[in-house]
Automatic annotation (TrEMBL):
It comes from uncultured marine bacterium MedDCM-OCT-S04-C103. SUPFAM superfamilies: Metallo-dependent phosphatases. Pfam families: YmdB (PF13277). It comes from the Bacteria. Gene3D superfamilies: 3.60.21.10. This is Metallophosphoesterase. GO terms for molecular function: 2',3'-cyclic-nucleotide 3'-phosphodiesterase activity.
């Protein structure tokens, strides 16, 4: 099993990179699982359900994926996706 582990996805630039390039990276490297630290995906202010859903739809699918985040006071809401 090949696992791709990504560090911080920070703000729109990080999200844009993933949505534009992750599918090609997964294909080229035959990645089975993607793990990404998404706690700064909302520009350093946590992650929102909307952003998590956007990443799920545009970047992660169809491969298995996990968005990781630490426990931060800046986490905007509990994610239910």
């Amino acid at each position: 099993m090949k696992i791709l582990i990504l560090g911080d996805v920070v703000g729109r630039p990080g999200r844009n990179f993933l949505t534009q390039h992750l599918a090609g990276i997964r294909t080229d490297m035959a990645i089975d699982l993607v793990l990404a630290n998404g706690e700064n995906a909302a520009g350093g202010a946590g992650i929102t359900a909307k952003i998590a859903a956007e990443l799920k739809e545009r970047a992660w699918m169809p491969s298995p994926w996990v968005i990781m985040f630490g426990i931060k006071k800046t986490l905007k809401m509990k994610l239910k996706i």
